[in-house]
Amino acid sequence: MDIIAQLFAGLSLGSVLLLAALGLSLTFGQMGVINMAHGEFMMAGAYTAFVIQGVVGDAGVSLLLALPLGFVVGGLLGLLLEATLIHRMYRRPLDTLLVTWGVALVLQQVARDVFGAPNVDVRAPAWLSGAVEIGGLALPRTRLFILALAIVCVVALALALRATPLGRRIRAVVQNRDLAEASGISSRATDRVTFFIGSGLAGIAGVTLTLLGSVGPTLGTNYIVDAFLVVVAGGIGQIKGTVIAAMALGLMQAFFEYSTTASVAKVLVFVAIVAFLQLRPQGLVSVRTRSLA
Amino acid sequence: MRLRSTSRYGATRLSTVSLAALCVVALSACGARVDAGSDTSASAESCVDTSGDTVKIGFLNSLSGTMAISEQTVHDSLELAAQEINADGGVLGKELEIVSEDGQSEPTVFAEKAGKLITSDCVAAVFGGWTSASRKAMLPVFEAQDSLLFYPVQYEGLESSPNIFYTGATTNQQIVPALDYLVEQGTKSLFLVGSDYVFPRTANKIINAYAEAHDIEIVGEEYAPLGHTDFSTIVNKVKSADADAVFNTLNGDSNVAFFKEYKNVGMSADDMPVVSVSIAEEEVGGIGIENVEGQLTAWNYYQTVDSPANTAFVEAFKAEYGEDRPTSDPMEAAYTSLYLWKAMVEKAESFAVEDVTAAADGVTFDAPEGEVVVNGDNHHIAKTALIGKIGADGLIHTEWSSEEPIEPDPYLEGYDWADGLS
Amino acid sequence: MSEMSSTEQQPETEIDLAAAEALLGTDADRFKHDYLEVRGLRVEFDGFVAVRDVDLTVTQGDLRFLIGPNGAGKTTLIDAVTGLVRATGSVSFGRTALLGRSTHRIARAGVGRTFQTASVFEELTVLQNLDIAAGARRAPLTLLRRRPATPEAVEHALETVGLTALRDVPAGVLAHGQKQWLEIGMLLVQDAHLLLLDEPVAGMTQAEREETGQLLRRIGSQRVVVVVEHDMEFLRSFADSVTVMHQGRVLAEGTVNEVQNDPAVVEVYLGAPTQGDLA
Amino acid sequence: MTVLTTLLRPGRTRTLAAFGLAAVLLLLAPLVLSPFRLDLLAKFLCLAMVAVGIGLAWGRGGLLTLGQGVYFGLGAYLMAMHLKLADAGPGGVPDFMLLYGTGQVPGWWEPLRSPVSAILLILVVPAALAALLGWAVFTRRVRGAYFAILSQALAAAFAILLIGQQQTTGGTNGLNGFRAFFGYDLADPVNKQMLYLIAAAVLLLMVAIVRQLTVSRFGELLVAVRDQEDRVRFLGYDPAAVKVVAYVVAAVMAAVGGALFVPIAGIVSPADVGVVPSIGFLIGVAIGGRATLLGPVLGSIAVSWAQTSISEQFPSGWIYFQGALFILVIAFLPGGLASVAGKLRRRAPEGSPA
């Protein structure tokens, strides 16, 4: 019974990590941009949910409204970041890490000045409170919702990448930027769209986090390191790797935490990732190219 | 070619010479050595200037970083107390001049800024600190400089520095009464949940000792890293342990995630009440009233305390900072700390540290929480313990009271079961 | 090439074959047992077979050209020999098996290569580039010292590739052709016994090509040299023998004349008109 | 001819002059600064030591290490443990262990009782960890962003580990309250001055070491590895070895900085070693000019100074300021202020390989 409960806890944590990392793997995969402000885009999504709840009132309606609007808010922030800073730095991917760290600092402080330093409360709708009992096992509805939402996001993204012309362009640029440009794909436009979608996913992740934890200026920093580890372990350029890595990390954390403590579990997960990268330096799944890296 | 290498040696020589010079100066500048064991540190001469119409005091709170959420509130109530005192003629006729510093939520910065306030700004006393880490960081600074710190937050005890006055609760004024209350309610088993740092660890050590002596079973003890946000595993353990109550020493954001998860798996105060010692009125809003309604807290002050002094304090605070701002225990303790210092100074008729500490014993103040008395031996104050229940209005209502102020006992020397704890 | 403009005022450079003599020495016997032998080589990328069943033998004194349409597997073959991509089969140089070794060990075994896009250390000077190339066998501790004097081999290489006057210029500002010469110079000071050159004359002027060809011929007389090249004019002038690759396989091998008249080769090149002018 | 130009090349004379000037300024500081300000400066010098190492690893070697806090912390904690044991006297138990721990000194603390082995461990432990981690990571060609993220996760894991072991590491409280530094009373202002001078001398020594490394063949090789790692491999070098050396040197410098930080600041806590301070180390390096010799030192000191003085005036202003610095300097001035100076003189940045 405990094992099944932990299995669910792990998958649930994995789905949270997946939502946080999905957008990252897109922007990191396509442009090599390491967006440390991704966590703050999540925070922006969470505050979007807070603001909407303040306006709408009903927790259920506001949650359903917040998901698309969080996507738009996160996406617009990403677009702004891309247009003002990132686009001039594609040749210096490592430097984007530091620039976006600066952006993250500023966004956090802005949130503090606008919404105040204390956490704010976003109520969960009534239909998400409590748990579903299955054979004596209580599965919290919020976590089931997040799991389902993560699946929806992954499927939607996979379909978008596979079946739409836009998706094909994105995949082409991920796999070989120069070749794609040579074949007439405007990588500028594709980059913008990718950044919009990737950052928008952060916004969605932020909205869902309001169901689980605190909504405050530092919401994003709690997730950013883990999200990057997921991307690194998963490998660049394919959703599959990100999904597996997120779930593996979630399960590892849950089971290590169960048998040791939460602190030790975090350290063990890190050790496991370093060991894993010894076996697969490019992550779980990687698009191999012939070019001299 | 020869010339080129000469220039290289030239480079080496210059750097060698300057290095050597520095080393020589460094070694010749050695000061006093300590004899092992003896404590003969030469304390610096105080530079506090009381000749004018004003006297400087320092406020040292984290106004940025993760702790700013909590410490800003303390800072605000300190400012309020200073304003009131100045409006009322100051201390010994001198107006208070505030030097405010930001501790940036980092112990190292607290130590640095404490040094600055004492030696550069020459303040007569410093008020502030929140985390145990920040207090521990400042303690040696205040002792070395023989200056005064007023620390306004409940903490883990096991400390009494001659240079610190502790106006928050020590363990026998908060944790022990909370356990007494639980025993009174018939609690037979407890689950301990805490953040992984010094206060929860020490608190749980005390709880374990208490439990052993009072026939309570500790069915689980879990720690989450500070800032931990995923509590499904820990809440799973709590749920399956099925204790009579949960004793919660989690800190900050973790409380939000814990209580949301607690509610999400379908548990409430009716099934398994949670007694928290770090959730005050400020935090309730952020956690969400619906998630903590009916849960218990242990403090020495609530905004709902019914006393003329508290009515005045709450009114003044809301007038200054807004109707929506609640008042909480650490804020009240900070507010009280400034008045206590004023009372000590006035009793001693001096701002000098040794005079103030000498006069401290027995100084009283009619604080919002009720009358408090300074214990001159351990520098803590006698406080009344209050167990509260979080109401639907977001405020905390007294459920149980120790009735009398409890004498501070930071080392729990007066409790038989606590032998061997420290 | 934006770098071109910055080199306008620089002195003209040219290959100095006499200096090459000093560098290479005349003792051809030293290399006479050197040969590259590739057997049953196969390279796969995610299910796509880029090189299959390739056999290739190149001996010292035979300036071998490797040609074929884009995607024929020429560069992949070189990548496999130098350990950049994983391959199956066998590759040996002299008595040394290369396959499965790490790249830097293959390089230490005397295998050197250049890249399609000239790849030099742009922030370092020409001299520093050559000095690094010359130094792989230096004891680690000597690395911690400043360069006492320009090593003799580096001086000769500078003269050979005509960059003596530009020795203290950052390699990044060199013209394209000069960079490629610098790369060849680096191979020489590296003392590579097997040189794999990927399009060494691309982007060069006619005069530069001529000089490069002469130098390659001089090197090839002593060492094992394989040149990947599209330029048929250049090939006809300098190749001793030619291997034609197509779709990952060896299509034909022989002298320039033999290959030109091979019907299979003609068909492949007619089938890919952009590669054109073989005839 | 070339001899003369070499001798007179501005890069070298300028570096020498700057080095001499820095030494003189550092020597004069105790005469003009108040004890409190001198203490601050000494602290900044310790942080600058980390920056010198980062300048080598990141500026020269392209290794964006977001985890230098780990090595800083290792050095600092090892020193702090020694000071704690020394304060407790022979066979004594540090105060916090009596309060929160078992009252027993754990076995792995014991080697730090002796001053000699403490100093050795301060140098060896960080070097060994950096060598092990660097070797594991670099030989598998984990690089660029992957390395940066791993090093950052290392910092996060290290801080969590320290916090979790409260009984033996002091937890969030860290270690503090040291009375003496190798027998010298830390409350004595004269000894504080001595500590400052030691820090200044060590910093200058580090700058000299990095200077020697950058002008040596190793320095050229490091730049080559940074720009074209695979090309270097084809020349017969193992780039992993080159990177490991740079990483280890940077780690040791950070550790020494940490070790000296402890007696000067009087405290080390997990807040000094985690993700945020680790990234914080980089901004000074970037501002000063990551690939230059003195840039990281000056940049780091300037940033530390700005942090202290700005936060005195506007507490939350510092966060905006720091964020803006990261954005503006990295995005628009990747060469740091040194490149501005260089552009003004229409010359290559100082310290570029001669």
From TrEMBL, chain A:
Main localization category: membrane
Gene Ontology, cellular component aspect: plasma membrane
Gene Ontology process terms (BP): amino acid transport
TM ranges: 6-29, 63-81, 144-161, 193-215, 227-251, 263-279
Bilayer topology: Multi-pass membrane protein
Keywords in alphabetical order: Amino-acid transport, Cell membrane, Membrane, Transmembrane, Transmembrane helix, Transport
Keyword set includes Transmembrane: yes
Source superkingdom: Bacteria
Location in or out of the cell: Cell membrane
Gene Ontology molecular functions: transmembrane transporter activity
InterPro entries, per database record: ABC_transp_permease, ABC_UrtB_bac, BCAA_transport_permease
UniProt family annotation: Belongs to the binding-protein-dependent transport system permease family. LivHM subfamily.
Name of the molecule in the record: Branched-chain amino acid ABC transporter permease
From TrEMBL, chain B:
Biological processes, Gene Ontology terms: amino acid transport
Domain of life from the UniProt record: Bacteria
Database matches in Gene3D superfamilies: 3.40.50.2300
SUPFAM superfamilies assigned: Periplasmic binding protein-like I
Pfam annotation, one family: Peripla_BP_5
Segment forming the signal sequence: 1-20
Keywords assigned by UniProt, alphabetized: Signal
Protein name: Urea ABC transporter substrate-binding protein
Organism: Promicromonospora soli
UniProtKB/TrEMBL annotation, chain C:
Superkingdom of source: Bacteria
ATP-binding as UniProt keyword: yes
UniProt cross-references to CDD domains, sorted A to Z: ABC_Mj1267_LivG_branched
Domain ABC transporter span(s) in chain numbering: 36-272
Keywords, alphabetical: ATP-binding, Nucleotide-binding, Transport
PROSITE patterns the UniProt entry points to: ABC_TRANSPORTER_2
GO-annotated cellular components: plasma membrane
Molecular function terms from GO: ATP binding; ATP hydrolysis activity
Xref: NCBIfam families: urea_trans_UrtD (TIGR03411)
Organism the protein comes from: Promicromonospora soli
InterPro entries, sorted: ABC_AA/LPS_Transport, ABC_transporter-like_ATP-bd, ABC_transptr_urea_ATP-bd_UrtD, BCA_ABC_TP_C, P-loop_NTPase
Pfam families reported in the protein's UniProt record: ABC_tran, BCA_ABC_TP_C
Protein name per the record: ABC transporter ATP-binding protein
ATP-binding listed as a keyword: yes
Automatic annotation (TrEMBL), chain D:
Key word Transmembrane present: yes
GO molecular function: branched-chain amino acid transmembrane transporter activity
Keywords on record: Cell membrane, Membrane, Transmembrane, Transmembrane helix
GO cellular component, one term: plasma membrane
Cell membrane recorded as keyword: yes
Membrane-spanning ranges: 15-33, 40-58, 118-138, 144-163, 194-213, 244-268, 280-306, 318-340
Subcellular location: Cell membrane
Membrane topology per record: Multi-pass membrane protein
Record's protein name: Urea ABC transporter permease subunit UrtC
Species this protein is from: Promicromonospora soli
